[in-house]
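Researcher: Here's a chain I'd like modeled. Treat it as a single chain, no partners, no ligands.
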Amino acid sequence: MRQAAAVLMAGKLEVMLRDAQDGLSVAELVKSANARASQVGALLRELEKSGQVRRVGTGRGTRWRLITDEERVAERAAELEQRATSTV
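Model: Modeled as a single isolated chain. Structure tokens:
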């Protein structure tokens, strides 16, 4: 008998991704959270839109990673550096 799927909350999804340095696939998230693939996909797209997660790879090889504060700072520093050099 198949177990009913659990409702996955965005906070739990973020914790799962935080604990996985190399990211996780949708299939891995579905299995670990015992959730529906459609729900996991919708949450990931929502988190991606808000800048919380990043998609790495394509197709079946796609993995999802949580964006760290360090990555945000480095990206912002690179953006500011590029602006400074392009206006000179």
